[in-house]
Design a protein that fits this description.
single chain, 80 residues, mainly alpha, 0% strand
């Protein structure tokens, strides 16, 4: 049985490894949610310009995962 991580760097490595393993799934889930995001916003009482701008933004957006950035930021935050 593996020993539990004891340092921030060890914990960050565990989180980093998990993020790398799940990256494709996370991106696929985000892409699949685009239509739900648009539908939910369309149901709000905003005008056609706001709705059109939101729709264009979501349709044009891409999802990117940066495990190194996540690791750096996590260690910095947990060190505060």
């Amino acid at each position: 049985m593996a020993m539990a991580p004891r340092t921030l760097e060890e914990m960050a490595r565990v989180g980093y490894d998990k993020l790398v393993r799940k990256a494709a799934q996370i991106t696929a889930s985000w892409t699949a949610a685009k239509n739900r995001m648009i539908s939910g916003y369309e149901a709000l009482p905003f005008g056609p310009t706001r709705k059109s701008n939101f729709r264009a933004g979501i349709e044009g957006a891409t999802h990117r995962i940066d495990p190194e950035k996540w690791r750096r930021n996590w260690v910095a935050k947990m060190s505060e």
